[in-house]
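I hope you will forgive my troubling you with a question about protein structure. I am sending you one protein, given as its amino acid sequence and as whole-number tokens for its backbone shapes. Thank you for your consideration; the sequence and its tokens are set out here:
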Amino acid sequence: MNRRVRFYSGEKRAASRRPTAAALAYDPQTDGAPRVVASGRGKIAEQIVALARQYQVPVYEDPELSAALAMLNLDEEIPPELYLVVAEVLAYIYRVVQKKGL
């Protein structure tokens, strides 16, 4: 089964901080781990989140995770240090998708 998983981790805007967003994709047939397919700050982050919502891609807000993911290069797999937290996010998204019937 070739199943791609995507999610966006966004950071709410704070008075002194620009929003940050990152998008991950994972295809168990070709990827060793989830990889960063988009990231940005400010207006780009807002566009990433807007596109996610437009296409009904679940958005998970975690400022620390989005900051860590934004430091990675595009197409770079997440490092082992992030496996646990990303697995928790993927489990959350799986539950959301099942509940909404997406």
